[in-house]
Amino acid sequence: MNVYDGQRIESMLRGRGMMPVADIALADLIVLNTCAVREKASNKVFSELGRIRDRKKPDALFGIVGCVAREEGANAFRRMKELNFVLGPQSYHKLPEILDNPDARLLNVDLSGLEKFDALPPMNDSPAVAYIPIQEGCDHCCTYCIVPYTRGRELSRDTGDVMRDVRAAAESGAVEICFLGQNVNGYKNSLAALITETAKLESVKRIRFTSSYPTEMTDDLIALFGTEPKLLPFLNMPIQSGSPDVLTRMNRPYGLGLYIGIVEKLRAMRPDIQISSDFIVGFPGETDEDFEMTCDIARRIGYINSYSFKYSPRPHTAAALMKDQIPENIKKQRLKILDDILTENNRAFNESCVGLTLPCLVEGPDKTGKHLLARTPWMQQVIVSPSAKQRVEEYKSKRVEHKTILSYSPTLLLSIRITNANKCSLRGEIVKS
Fold first, then answer.
1. Which residues lie below 8 Å from residue 196, measured CB to CB, with a gap of 6+?
2. pLDDT given for residue 433 in this prediction
3. Which helix (H) or strand (E) holds 50?
4. According to the model, what pLDDT value does residue 115 have?
5. Which of 253, 331, 342, 347 has the most neighbouring CB atoms within 10 Å?
6. 253 φ/ψ angles, rounded to the nearest 5 degrees
7. What is the 3-state secondary structure (H, E, C) of 308-336?
């Protein structure tokens, strides 16, 4: 969601005649887009703002948008009096107001529903992957999660509005559509129908969605993995813990039987589907036995590309007040054990891909300009060998003030043979364009 928000903010500012610069010291406006889901990310915001303040031009405007802005509200101005604006995730479309009145302070952290989607200008230059939000907020109210406070309760966008965004993205360069939502498969107007309608667009070659809640995986959505070839064989479906007791304390109302049954149905529909997940270790009251159940489910499902975190108390959440908080050293030990299991899962799957020829979507050149970076249908990164240098040289360079950006054809789907693998990425060579 933050990637989407960043893209829309950039597009909105470009519409005001602004352009990105590579150096903060050259900027007239500096926008820090923030996330409050993890305590560590939230804590880094004000230290980063301090560095920005010390490097920026004296007359440059700067401030924060997103979830930390919503969490802090007016307190952000007290913590850093030099800030010019504090805008929540539902109100960053009001950012141009500070450009019109730079001597004012702009504060808006209201949860104003879906107003921003009507106010934001349409995208007229989409990247190869277009992120399209279809709903905002969440009603599940997991006891560890700050999202209902920072993003609000669940609201689904009108299907017609979503499809207008999809068509605009497809017409302006997007090849892959990724539908977004804090509870994306809880979309009230049928995610399956939305995917089916999107797949009719010839220029759209790949479709995916994130992030999924297990109890919202309806039969029609599961069946679509077996019938719609544009829907990628990859699903992020967080389980968070393998312990029924911990899931109950998290207010995650599903059993392991239901979760495993969904995975089995998905694999029956699409045998090559791969699942990723999110995990929280060290949740209050988590015993050694609880943690071992999490390790067991990680091995059993064989997740790839999963995300694991130590539990961190967040304000406005029930879990922050729970007894039996786990000591930091134990959380650290457990995270290391789980990460080793997930890394081995990832390595084993990556190695199983060696020798396959896969349709991959090019993201662009790497930092050296000598290789291409691409994504497989399972979202693994592929580094294409130096023999692809001639393709990089076909890319047109353009100047954006003080930064050179390599642009590339957004329709570039390549057949790539996987030649090597490690735990983090693949290497490959172009078979044909």
1. 224, 228
2. 52
3. helix 39-55
4. 83
5. 342
6. -85, 60
7. EEECCCCCCCCHHHCCCCCCHHHHHHHHH
**CA atoms lying within 13 Å on the CB side of residue 215:** 7
> Cα–chain-centroid distance for residue 405?
23
CA angle 152, 153, 154 (to 5 degrees): 125
What CA–CA distance (Å, rounded) separates 342 from 408?
34
296 and 279 Cβ atoms separated by less than 8 Å: no
Distances (CA, A) of 312 to 111, 279, 289: 24, 12, 20
- Is residue 25 within 8 A of residue 55, CB to CB? The reply is yes
| pTM beyond cutoff 0.85 | yes
SS3 341: helix
Residue reference for tokens 């440059």: 60
The alpha helices in 59-175, defined as continuous H runs, are: 67-72, 75-79, 96-100, 115-119, 147-150, 159-171
List CB contacts of 1: < 8 A, sequence separation 6 or more. Answer: 89, 131, 133, 180, 182
> Which of 193-202, 302-311, 377-386 has the lowest average pLDDT?
377-386
Mean pLDDT, rounded, of the chain: 90
Amino acid at 317: T
